[in-house]
Amino acid sequence: MMEDARTYEELRVGFTAAVSHELRTPLARLLAILESAELPGADRDALLAEAREQVEEMSELIDDVLFLSELESGRQVVALGGISALPVLEETRDRLADSAERADVKIRVDAAPDVEIPLRRRMLQIVVENLAVNSIRYAGPGATLLLAARPGELEVSDDGRGVEEGDLSRLFERFYRSDRARASRGTGLGLAIVKHVVASAGGRVEASGGPGRGLRIVCSFPAP
Ligand SMILES: Nc1ncnc2c1ncn2[C@@H]1O[C@H](COP(=O)(O)OP(=O)(O)OP(=O)(O)O)[C@@H](O)[C@H]1O
Ligand SMILES: [Mg+2]
C-alpha cells in the first residue's frame, strides 16, 4: 500500500512536470502567432489556421492528463467490445508522416479492416502513438516502423538501433531511459503509460529485439 502510494506519487509528479513542459511549447507558438498577426500586412487566415492547430494540440494534451487521472482513479476505462484498429494505425501513420520523414524512418501499416482491439479509441491512439514516436525518435535513419494488428494483438516494431537485451525488461519502468536517449527530449513515461493502459484492459506488453536488431513491442489482449 505504501509502495503503491509512492509509485503513484512519482508518476503523478513526473507526469505533471512533463505536461507543463509540453504545454509550454504550443503556448509559446501561439503567442508568436498572435504577435505576427498584429503586424501590418500579416496573412491573418494562415495565422488563424496555425493558431487553431496549436490550440488543438493543447486540447489533446489536456485530454491525456484527464485520461491518465481517470486511469489512476481506477474508473472503468476499458471499452466494452472493441474498436477497429486499422483506421487508428492509418491516422497515426499520417499524423507522424512529417516527423518520420525528417528522421528518415519509413512507416508501414499492416492490419485487416475487421481486426478489433479491446481499448477505447483514445487509449488505442495513445498506445500506438507513444510506441511509434519512440521508433521515429530512437530507431535511427533508414529504419522501417511497422504498425500492425491481428486478432488479440497489437504490434509496433522497428528494425533500427534497438536496446541492450538486459534493458528490455526495464523499458516499461517509469522514467527509464537508455544512456543514449538521455541527450534527446523525453521523460521516460511513454512506455510506462503504454503498459498501464494495456494492463487496464487485461492485456500484457512484451518487448523483444537487441542492439542493431530493432525493438519489437507486442501488446496482447485476452479473447473477448
Ligand atoms: N524503438 C526504440 N528503439 C530504441 N530504443 C527505444 C525505443 N523505444 C524506446 N526506447 C528506449 O526506451 C526508453 C523509454 O522509452 P519511453 O517511451 O518510456 O520514454 P521516452 O521516449 O524517453 O520519453 P517520453 O516517451 O516520456 O517522451 C527510451 O528513452 C529509449 O532509451
Ligand atoms: Mg517515448
How is this structure best described in words?
With 224 residues, the protein is an alpha+beta fold. It has two domains: 71 residues, Orthogonal Bundle (Helix Hairpins); 138 residues, Heat Shock Protein 90, CATH 3.30.565.10. Helix 1 packs antiparallel against helix 2 and helix 3 crosses helix 5. The longest helix has 36 residues. The protein is globular, with a radius of gyration of 19 Å. Magnesium ion binds next to helix 5.
**Uncertain segments of ≥5 residues (pLDDT<50)?**
none
N- to C-terminal distance: 31 Å
Strand content: 15-25%
SSE ordering: HHEHHEEHEEHEE
Biggest sheet overview: 5 strands, mixed
Based on helices, strands and strand pairing, what is the structural class?
alpha+beta
Q: What is the level 1 CATH name of the largest domain?
A: Alpha Beta
CATH architecture of the largest domain, please?
2-Layer Sandwich
Radius of gyration, rounded? 19 Å
**Would you report the number of β strands?**
7
Shape: globular
The CATH superfamily name of the largest domain is: Histidine kinase-like ATPase, C-terminal domain
Total helices: the number is 6
Helix proportion of residues, in percent?
A: 40-55%
Bound molecules: adenosine-5'-triphosphate, magnesium ion
> Would you give the CATH topology of the largest domain?
Heat Shock Protein 90
Major sheet: arrangement of strands: 2-4-5-7-6
Mean pLDDT, to the nearest integer, reads 85
Summary keywords:
single chain, 224 residues, alpha+beta, Helix Hairpins, Heat Shock Protein 90, five-stranded mixed beta sheet, two-stranded antiparallel ribbon, 6 helices, 50% helix, globular, binds magnesium ion
